[in-house]
Amino acid sequence: MNKDAIIECVPNFSEGHDMNIIKQITDVIEEVEGVKLLDVDAGKATNRTVVTFVGNPDAVIEAAYRAIKKAAEVIDMSRHKGEHPRMGATDVCPLIPVSGISMEETAEYAKKLGKRVGEELHIPVYLYEYAQKNTARNNLSIIRGGEYEGFFDKIKLPEWKPDFGTAVMNVKAGATVIGARDFLIAYNINLNTKSVRLANSVAFDVREAGRVKREGNPITGKIIKDENGNEIRIPGTLKSCKAIGWFIEEYGIAQISMNLTNYKITSVHKAFEEVCKSADKRGIRVTGSELVGLIPLDSILDAGRYFLQKQNRSIGVSEEELIQIAVKSLGLDELSPFDPNKKIIEYKLRDAANEKLINMSLKSFANETASESTAPGGGSIAAYVGSLGVSLGAMVANLSAGKRGWEDQINYFSEWADKAQKIKDSLLKSVDEDTRAFNEIMIGFGMPKNTDEEKKSRTEAIELATKNACEIPFGVMQMSYSSLELLEAMIEKGNQNSITDAGVGVLCVKTAVRGAYFNVLVNAKGLKDKTYAEKISAEAKKVLANNHKKANELIEKVEKAIE
User: Fold this and answer.
1) Are 148 and 225 contained in the same domain?
2) pLDDT per residue over 161-174, tens digit each?
3) Residue of 43, 84, 484, 552 with fewest CB within 10 Å of its CB?
4) pLDDT at 215
5) Mean pLDDT of all residues in the chain?
């Protein structure tokens, strides 16, 4: 585990009505330094709130402990009613590794948290998923079987002795499940029926556990067992998927409530499509869906690409358009507006200050550049010009993919457009990164230099910042140069009505590479590490020469084509 390790915590609290109670819980989370509260998703019908926060591991388990303690104070499980299965005020508290930490290390933090909750709060704690070695009791639904009401007897059974705390049910707080798991997507699919029976039939069709096999009638028939007396099950169509049907009075509809425990195996769009198929067979229709908590960016982008491919369209569109396609295709905005900035985990984590320039309007960006401040300067402009060049290549690719009569080439052009979008996004990030690198150098020069130790720290900070200020424009050179392959393909095979657009893209790339080259050289010149300076300058010169040669060849092709 490194010092920058980040874990996510997604506790589920058994309260979805009283926002004052929920706020008391989230307040104690936000009091912990090193933790960022990302999402609070309250459900009235389920009487349950899903909270998401992230931070360094020690801070996260401290915040989780405080939240569990507060929930035990303000929630009375003896009075709790709700659609969702539950066994405690803090029903479940999973830890999820995000970066810089392994699952095994995360599981140890879960055990540390569980031990403290059991010993100090006198709440029975059960470990689950990767924190639980006993496979007979590592599944959340199995642990929670019997729910709060049934646990007063269940907890007395030797096989259900808690991992931490005493084997006595806490009347007010109930029991809590704590563990470490992969990222889980909580996803509900809406149906045009109020029938829980029909909803459950669909859920049984798709969930991995499927349904028990019966004689004759699949609902009322006698359960079929094997020679050992175990129920025989008919597996569902989706792996890594848990699902049940329920009725949501708040919306007046039945839903399929899903937990996608590994979205790399079963994606949101695959789950949606399978439910649509099952529902259609039963004479009901899917009308939309909703996310409970957050979703990873790659999951929703994959959904956007999937639905574009179904429409026989290019997938090489902007991130924003992919998200919009996914939201509309999955009906994620049917019950309430879908705000990507609130529902996508990467968007919640990003720092707006790091995207100050690229979030400006064209006019504001030009005005900022033209002001008397020294940044943004040539490096940021070079990155932006490079992004415009590759964007023109993406445009030609998308126009070619949509050209009538070229349907057999859609995959070819779609793949090029998709590559172009990735290069464009990387170059746009460099617009702000270049300015931040310059600012870091200025911060270094502003450090005190009164003592020998201060002088040493100042020199080291300036040297490190200056190397970074070399690496960023060098990366712009490499990314911009790599886009010439795309532009060449569009000039030679793309829609010839747009060949001049590809030509302008080449001119932009040529400017971007030379402009970034200037920045590499001027920053390398100020380095004390002359070996590094000579090496990066030589590599940059090589990229410049290759780019210049290739760009000139492509410009000549465009000029010949339009003469």
Assistant:
1) no
2) 999 999 999 999 99
3) 552
4) 79
5) 94
- Asked whether residue 286 falls in the same domain as residue 223, the answer is yes
Query: Which structural domain range is residue 451 located in?
Result: 352-562
CATH number of the domain to which 225 belongs = 3.30.70.670
Does a structural domain hold residue 139? yes
Number of domains in the chain: 3
Q: Residue 5's pLDDT is what? A: 86
Kindly state whether residues 300 and 441 are assigned to the same domain: no
- The answer, yes or no, to whether residue 212 has pLDDT greater than 90, is no
How far apart CA 353 and CA 432 sit, in angstroms, is 9
What is the average pLDDT across 211-224?
79
1 is a domain residue:
no
Catalytic residues: 84, 434
44 & 164 share domain? yes
Count the residues in the chain.
563
Residue 236 has pLDDT above 80, yes or no: yes
Distance of alpha carbon 330 from alpha carbon 17, whole angstroms? 27
Tell me what pLDDT residue 1 has. Answer: 62
Number of H helices, E strands in the chain: 17, 13
Would you give the distance in Å from CA 379 to the centre of its chain?
A: 30
Question: What type of residue sits at position 248?
Answer: I
Q: Tell me the residue type at 173.
A: A
Mean pLDDT across the stretch 207-225? 82
Inter-residue contact 40 to 26 (CB < 8 Å): yes
b/e 33-68 (16+ beta carbons within 10 angstroms → b): eebbbbbbbbbebbbbbbbbbbbbbebbbbbbbbbb
> Residue 221: what residue type?
G
Buried b (16+ CB within 10 A) or exposed e, 105-121: ebbbbbbbbbbbbbeeb
Give me the pLDDT at residue 2, please: 62
Rounded CA gap, 54 and 331, in Å? 28
Question: Which of 270, 336, 328 is CA-nearest to residue 299?
Answer: 270
Q: How far apart are CA 283 and CA 107, in angstroms?
A: 44
